[in-house]
Amino acid sequence: MSLLFAQFDPPKSEHVVDFLKMLFIAVPVILGVVVAWKAVTRKKEQQEITPQPLIIDQAEKYVTRAHCDLTHKETSRAIEVLDKQLVELRQERRQDIKDLHEKVNAVSREVSELKAATALQNQQLARMDQKLDRLAARA
Fold it and tell me: What does pTM read for this prediction?
């Protein structure tokens, strides 16, 4: 056995590169041939669409024009009622928003008044503090 391996020369890098090139070309070609052969030899399977769209059955009861008109009128009335309710809800929402704006504005005015009063009181306290400091310094 050792004599058998000793007789071979190590492969040259050019040969390895050529072998890899051939491998990268041959494998996809062989796979393509196999896939094409399977596609040709494979039996065509019939596809069945269910329920059958082309089968027409006799209906027991048909919809009449009067029924369609009646359904249209009922639906139109229901839509009108919903439209009225929607308008009322929008008006209520607008009124609620208006009331909220008025409340926020009132609170904003009160806060502004309180800020002004607090600033005035702070000024008065600062003046009184200065007066007390002067009285304490004299005494």
Answer: 0.42
